[in-house]
Write a structure and sequence with these properties.
CATH class of the largest domain: Alpha Beta
Largest sheet: 6 strands, antiparallel
CATH topology of the largest domain: Beta-Lactamase
Strand content: 15-25%
Structural class: alpha+beta
Number of helices: 19
Oligomer: single chain
Distance between the termini: 207 Å
Strand order of the largest sheet: 13-12-11-16-15-14
CATH architecture of the largest domain: 2-Layer Sandwich
Helix content: 40-55%
Number of strands: 21
Radius of gyration: 71 Å
């Protein structure tokens, strides 16, 4: 059947195809017997889909699902018309196979169900099928044309992108080059600043021997500004004329070397100033490659002043050598003297250390025997002798052995007791140290010393405040005499020993007296106690227990104020204590003492300040019970009262008697009355 559809034919030629593909579907929709809500064309795989939704905004994925359902409902049939939708009552679905290629393409249309009208399929189905085939071909042609246009646009877009990228790359390259140039300029400025701070002249040469860098120190050294020097040949500028060929050959040899080189240390050269003056200098040279090009770096310094100083030093050295030759003997002697002085100083330091240690140990001991052994050991160390003894002076003036070292038992027995009339005692009594040899030591003791094998002896009396307390004796089996250097330290040890003996003997006497007085205090009926200047009890004798019931050990450290029964009495007593501490004079007072059971007892307290180092440190007191004394005083007052009453009676009696004597009659009557008085029996 020859079908003529002008609208579709107008769209069919590819060169005249519209770019809007929806025009073909709109033309096909006008062949439907009812206006559709949506019409679409798709291939069998639902990959290529063209749709006209008439502005309803259909989802392409939903259209593909509808196309799949249309293909399923068609099956082997060429067309399908039936209900569509969730409840299949609202919409009508039309499915139609498109004739031609590709096989399997379908046309679908959806319309509201109420618009459906019964029409004969033969009246519109064939034209619709033919129109669908033409529309399919038109859409394929449009697709190919659109693809070519898209490719051209894409190529043009890529060309524009490449141009933009190339432009950006050029801009970035230019910016990077500018940054590198700025960095190189900054680096060059930094390097020039670093070079300008260097104290030595720094010169950089290129491969032609031309100066490319000239620091400030080099400008000061040669007299050229950096701008003047830059670009000039170094050999012409800073090298003396007679040396320029030599330096050019040197630079040529260095340029031929490919590796970097450096001279080992500084070498002496001649410099050439701008004013034509030559000067001595030190130079170091090294080569390196900068950017693949050869460069040389020269460091140079002026040594004019140093050579002048060196010349002066050489002159000084010559004079010094003459002085050394003259002073060699003096120095040798000085070294010897210094060695001796150092030895003596070391010996003196050692002696001082021994004496200091001895003083510390003596201060820490109160045992006389131990102290004497310490002194004897120290005396042997400072004197270099090997044996010795210490004798104490007895009350009868003799000497008694108290300590010994490295002596045989027989010799100790011979010197254990030396009488007051012995030669040794006489030497000691003189109070002067004696340094003897074996030949000078006579008498029985001398014979014993000879048997002992002693060759040298020293007797050092231990004198304190003009009184000889003991004798320190040291001896040697090898030395003839005590060395001169050791005698003074030996006598110093003797003085320390004398002081220690006196101190320890005094401490022992003090302990004996303290024990004696403590025993006396503990056996007295009166209470002996001591207080410090703050009124705290530091000692109390046992008599307090009998007097007041207190235990002495429990009361130590307590304030004595708590023992006063009356506040006024305590205030008077403390005022007396304060006055006593200020005047350092004894005083006494009376008060009522509170016993431990709460009762009171009258006591009398007599105090005496205890002075140590010129100041009062405590108050020593004796407290006595006044109960008996007060009772005696009361009896005495009563007896006095009775005596006074008797005296008054006697006076009255005598007065009456004298009156009666003057009156005879009264006397007679009185005597008669006396005679009538009955006398008591017995």
């Amino acid at each position: 059947m020859d079908l003529d559809f002008p609208e579709l034919k107008a769209l069919y030629p590819a060169e005249e195809a519209e770019r809007d593909t929806s025009g073909a579907l709109a033309a096909v929709s006008r062949l439907l017997p009812w206006p559709p809500q949506m019409i679409f064309l798709c291939d069998a795989q639902q990959e290529s889909v063209w749709v006209e939704d008439f502005g309803t905004g259909c989802d392409l994925a939903a259209v593909r699902r509808v196309a799949g359902e249309v293909a399923g409902r068609l099956g082997p049939k060429d067309w399908y018309l039936g209900p569509f939708g969730p409840n299949e009552s609202q919409q009508q679905l039309l499915g139609l196979r498109v004739p031609g290629e590709p096989a399997g393409a379908v046309l679908g249309a959806i319309a509201p169900r109420q618009t459906w009208t019964e029409v004969s399929a033969q009246g519109w189905l064939d034209p619709l099928s033919a129109a669908a085939g033409l529309a399919w071909k038109h859409l394929q042609l449009c697709r190919r044309q659109l693809g070519q246009d898209t490719l051209v646009k894409q190529l043009r877009a890529e060309e524009e992108a490449l141009r933009a990228f190339h432009t950006a790359m050029l801009i970035e390259a230019v910016e990077q080059r500018e940054r590198r140039l700025r960095e190189q300029e900054e680096h060059a400025a930094q390097m020039q600043a670093i070079m300008d701070t260097a104290p030595d002249g720094l010169i950089v040469l290129n491969e032609r021997g031309t100066i490319v860098s000239f620091n400030r120190a080099a400008s000061r050294l040669f007299g050229f500004d950096a701008e003047e020097a830059r670009g000039a040949e170094a050999c012409e500028l800073i090298v003396p004329p007679q040396l320029r060929p030599r330096y050019r050959r040197l630079l040529d040899r260095l340029r031929r070397r490919t590796e970097q080189t450096a001279w080992g240390g500084m070498v002496r050269v001649q410099g050439f100033r701008r004013n034509g003056e030559e000067f001595p200098a030190e130079m170091s040279l090294s080569t390196l490659l900068l950017g693949g090009r050869w460069h040389a770096i020269i460091a140079i310094r002026d040594i004019t002043e140093r050579e002048r100083v060196e010349r002066e030093l050489a002159a000084y050295r010559t004079r010094l050598e003459r002085l050394v030759a003259r002073r060699t003997a003096e120095l040798t002697k000085a070294v010897s003297d210094l060695h001796m002085e150092v030895t003596e100083r070391r010996h003196a330091h050692e002696l001082l250390r021994l004496q200091r240690d001895l003083a510390c140990r003596l201060g820490a001991t109160s045992d006389l025997g131990e102290a004497l052994v310490m002194c004897l050991d120290t005396a042997l160390k400072v004197s270099g002798m090997k044996c010795g003894a210490v004798h104490l002076v007895t009350e009868d003036g003799g000497l008694r052995l108290a300590a010994s070292r490295n002596l045989s038992a027989s010799f100790e027995a011979a010197i254990r007791e030396l009488p007051a009339d012995s030669p040794e005692t006489a030497l000691v009594a003189a109070g002067k140290p004696r340094y003897l040899s074996a030949a000078d030591y006579r008498g029985p003791t001398g014979e014993a010393a000879a048997r002992e094998g002693l060759r040298g002896l020293a007797l050092v009396p231990l004198v304190h405040e003009g009184k000889t307390r003991a004798c320190l004796t040291v001896g040697s089996h090898t030395l003839e005499q005590v060395p001169e250097l050791a005698r003074t330290p030996l006598e110093a040890v003797g003085a320390q020993a004398a002081t220690a003996i006196v101190r320890i003997q005094a401490e022992e006497a003090l302990k004996r007296n303290e024990q004696k007085y403590r025993l006396l205090a503990e056996n007295l009926k009166d209470v002996v106690f001591a207080i410090d200047l703050e009124g705290r009890l530091t000692y109390c004798s046992p008599a307090i227990t009998e007097l007041a019931g207190y235990v002495p050990a429990e009361e130590i450290g307590k304030p004595i104020r708590q023992y006063a029964a009356d506040e006024d009495q305590w205030n008077r007593a403390w005022a007396i204590v304060t006055q006593m501490a200020r005047d350092c004079k004894p005083a006494s007072t009376e008060l009522d003492l509170r016993r431990k059971d709460g009762s009171t007892v009258p006591v009398e307290i007599t105090g005496k300040p205890l002075v140590e180092g010129g100041r009062v440190t405590a108050i020593q007191c004796v407290m006595r019970d006044m109960t008996e004394r007060r009772r005696y005083e009361e009896q005495l007052r009563e007896a006095k009262r009775v005596a006074e009453a008797a005296s008054r009676a006697k006076t009255e009696f005598l007065t009456n008697i004298s009156h009666e004597i003057r009156t005879p009659m009264t006397a007679i009557l009185g005597f008669a009355e006396i005679l009538q008085t009955q006398l008591p029996e017995g």
